[in-house]
Design brief:
Helix content: 10-25%
Shape: elongated
Mean pLDDT: 85
Distance between the termini: 50 Å
Structural class: alpha+beta
Strand order of the largest sheet: 3-4-5-7-8-9-10-11-12-13-14-15-16-17-18-19
Low-confidence stretches: 1-38, 40-50, 389-396
Order of helices and strands: HEHEHHHEEEEEEHEEEEHEEEEEEE
Number of strands: 19
Radius of gyration: 36 Å
Strand content: 35-45%
Number of helices: 7
Largest sheet: 16 strands, antiparallel, barrel
Length: about 550
Amino acid sequence: MSKLIWNTLKLSPLLLTATLFVATRTQAAEPLPLEETQPTSVSQLSDKAPETLAQVTSVSQLSDVQPTDWAFQALQSLVERYGCIAGYPDGTYRGNRALTRYEFAAGLNACLDRVNELIATASADMVTKEDLATLQRLQEEFSAELATLRGRVDALEARTAELEANQFSTTTKLSGEVIVAVSDVFGGNEFAASGSGEPIGDDNNVNTVLADRVRLTFNTSFTGSDELRTRIQARNVEPFGTGLTGTNMTRLGFDGSNDNDVDIDDLWYKFALGDILDIKVDFANGEFNDNVYVFNPLLESSGRGAISRFGRFNPIYRAGEGAGLTVNVNPKGVISASASYLARNASDPTNSFGLFNGDYAALGQIAFRPNDNIAIGATYVHTYDNSTTSDITETNSIGVTGSTGSVFANNPFAGSATSTNQYALQANVKLGSFTIGGWGGYTVALNEDSPSQTADIWNWAATLALQDVGKEGSVLGLIFGQPPRSARNDFGGRRDQDTSYHAELLYRFPLTDNIDVTPGVIAIFNPEHNDNNDTVYVGTLRTTFRF
């Protein structure tokens, strides 16, 4: 049996490559007339013989054959392994011209000669009756196993056919995430006041809630290297923000509510230009944190990362939202660069809105990532915002600091049109199971209605994440920092007098590969950068289902 297989394998490559030889040279050949009869002697062939063909020993001797040619490997095998191909005297192969019958006869004869040589060489090892008897005996001995294997193959083929017939789409993959959380605010029983004011009232009006966020994501690829994302969302997680606690510092990282109505939350198309450029076009609801690297890989996710809005990443990445364009240069290299532009009201054609005439944010970033364990970056963002939030009411606007700091930091000029120049440095280092990171941010805000008025806003944070604590896949996280603070402001005394501190502890525990439970607590010391306010605590038990 082994000899039979060996001899078959020895001859098969030569016969295959001979066939490829014919295919490479007969694409334009004339068909044989039907009335012609098969000659029995070479004397019956009266056509003039072609120019002499020269035997070659290496495919590199054929000047017009390139490694990019579709039949290069077949020619290389025929020449260098079997020595049964020839070129023209001028060193060419002329692979694109039609094959003459003379050339076909010469090439086929050379290959057949080589076949005869192999057969003659292997004649002593030809298959015997004993080999055939052994093969039959093995077939009978393993008939049960062969039948079982055949049954399994048939079952797999049937299952594959069923999956192909009932698959969701040949181009689109569906994934989902469901967050269910029990949350409450406790500790301080008063409504936080800004500046140096006294807390308002004696009740922060926050009760324990059970809320949810559901996302279904459709990722579509047309070429294999591109991606169209359509994400729909329903949620009812009311923000623990200025309307409930007097400060945005108590907001959760996954909050937002549309009363569980379904809407399109994300819509973009991304494609690559070679290995150097990644291009992403946001059609709606784009955010910088989804478009560029944010240097906080274990805590950035709203469903599996930090439980607070501030703790997920530097607030500079919340400076823009809407539709626009992002270009990432050398995204997989040691040094990469990113540029992004987002317009909040890009679909509104009325005055002072649109893609280029309304509120916008433009980002530039340089990242240094020499390996998977070290990341350092610098980020700059310029914004123009004509619709900042009011002091204690929630709107669709994100404000100067993305609703993460004090009222004065988020809205330094009490609703006036505002432009900013924002600067940030961030780093992330992984040491075994420990990941240490942090950031610092500085913002200069300009009152567009009174250009002589400016404000300086600062924030910083340090993060620590420890993986596989108690169970593989778990993350123990600690975040400590200063939410955005208006350290100086020329407008109406809207300067924060004291300093708030954000402390957060969380533990993400994987129940299964698709279910995570994350208890966590946030402590805000001196909320709204006002030491007249009591310390406020936010607790949540977040359960995340993924499929």
